Amino acid sequence: MTEQGNRAAGPDADLTRWSAAELGRAIGAGEVSAEEVTRAHLDRIAAVEARVHASLHVDGEGALAAARSVDSRRAAGQAVGPLGGVPVAVKDVLVTRGIPTTCGSRILENWLPPYDATVVERLRDAGLVMLGKTNMDEFAMGSSTEYSAFGPSYNPWDLSRIPGGSGGGSAAAVAGCEAPLAIGTDTGGSIRQPGAVTGTVGAKPTYGGTSRYGLIAFSSSLDTPGPVARTVEDAALLHAVIGGPDPRDSTSIPAPVPDVVAAARQGASGDLTGVRLGLVKEFAGEGAEPGVSAAVRDAIEALTKLGAEVVEVSCPHFRYALPAYYLIAPSECSSNLARFDGVRYGLRVGDDGTRSLEEVMSLTRDRGFGPEVKRRIMLGTYALSAGYYDAYYGQAQKVRTLISRDFAAAFAAADVLVAPTTPFVAFPFGARTSDPYQMYLADLYTIPSNLYGGPAISVPCGLSEGLPVGLQVMAPTMADDRMYRVAAALESTVGLFTPPEL
Ligand code: GLN
Question: Which residues does 473 contact at the CB level (< 8 Å), separation at least 6?
């Protein structure tokens, strides 16, 4: 059932199977129009969305208008760029002007943002065609999309299983060929973990390498927008479009993104001579399923056949990453989410010409936050309270510094670190909702890079029980190019992963 290996190799009659790079090239060469490409994806959405539920909003008319504008610019002889006319889906945590943006929450239902996030603006400027907004755990808190107020998304590999989270909608859309590209956001793993469990490529850029302007804040010191794709080159192309300095984001890094596209192409040649892969000693035996460990071991061996060298590194504080994250992220969220007070966003007084302030307040309270968001706000408020601040929030910040020092020491001995992306393959719905800690474990291996701020990518490396496994490649801050090189080299030997037909 599973074809593995050659999807991007030859032209396929079905445009939804093409890579973004191929689509962009064919559109640029006039072999296919952006409108045709967009229609093919809208048809695919119409055919599978009832089963996958990757999206919260599909903007068919807007997408076709954007595609036609790319076609007419091309016809007028203007350059449209490598991703001009290529469809993209955007996680519903990024604001889009005049297009519903809910963050997977009832509290933002009916809200129409008055502006575009920088990432969205850059997509439009580069001629990408936005298909719509993807499903997510409420306010990006979760690892399965089961905390979306609008129902979960389904994993195209097995519709009885979760597509990861919080960005499960973006990953499901790309794995299910509803879009060749999507945007996710990664605070503790929400691009990489969905990537791993859906057999897609997901990259968290260096913190500050992609703008947070217009990204509805969960944990401001961690939130990072990034690309989701089916190939490493596609992820790099998208990363190059959305990344780089933004004067509207005070934590944006004032330096260009390294040449991630060139690095991905270099990696695809399959030569990793002299590249040192660091294996984190403390991750060994840390709770990964045997099938996941085996696939990751095989992937690392495949990388050594391409010339890479394996070194063991020690990161003794990584074991405290999960507890530190679950103090820092809730603390920041308890402050950030205070703005959703039922007055400023969502339902408005006078909507439908009728609603009074009292009605709006009581409707908003009824709709309220879901259980996971409430749990985080309570945790964060407690951790920040007078008397407990030093013991919890202050202590977690110290651990964060120690984790960054572990990375610095590891990167003196290794060029990149490699590890599983997630300890387990896609799990069945309901398997981890009764015990929050079991859900939090999904991000055991992804959280250290968030606390440190460095880039990390998940690339499909094999199957376990017929389900995809991701290899995670972590790099030093602002060395995003390195992870693309290693990920592309792996892809060149293990091939691409296509889910069974839906
Ligand atoms: N699963 C993690 C959490 O629930 C990560 C979320 C994210 O990266 N947005 O907080």
Answer: 416, 417, 418, 456, 457, 459, 482, 483, 486, 487
